[in-house]
Write a structure and sequence with these properties.
The chain has 110 residues and is mostly helical. 64% of the residues lie in helices and 11% in strands. The chain contains three helices and two strands, in the order ββααα. Strand 1 and strand 2 (15-20) form a beta hairpin.
């Protein structure tokens, strides 16, 4: 890509930039940019899936509420369907944690 600057004619205050493109070079550059962008689009969801799966698995393994075969079942679900399994686990755990509350908060009047 070659760029040249030339003064504008008749009262112009700035410069115009003329760019000459070689068709072969431009096509290669467009293809390489497309490949890089396509790679980013694929890699980002994969990394998010791996991170979410690891976080969910660690939460399952640390949990004292889930025991024995239920841990294994959850881990298989997370392995098979990372996004769906993680969503279900966190969604159902939140509901279960709300049911297990054994105290009622005391609100004191001001």
């Amino acid at each position: 890509m070659v760029g040249t600057t030339q003064p504008r004619r008749k009262g112009g205050t700035g410069y115009e930039v003329h760019v000459e493109l070689n068709p072969k070079t431009a096509t290669k550059q467009i293809k390489s940019n497309t490949i890089i962008m396509g790679t980013k689009i694929v890699i980002i969801p994969i990394l998010l899936s791996i991170g979410l799966s690891i976080w969910t698995m660690l939460d399952i393994l640390k949990s004292k509420q889930i025991v024995g075969s239920m841990k294994i079942a959850w881990l298989f679900l997370i392995f098979g369907f990372p996004f769906l399994g993680s969503y279900l686990y966190f969604h159902l755990q939140r509901k279960q944690a709300g049911r297990q509350r054994k105290f009622k908060p005391i609100i004191k009047p001001v």
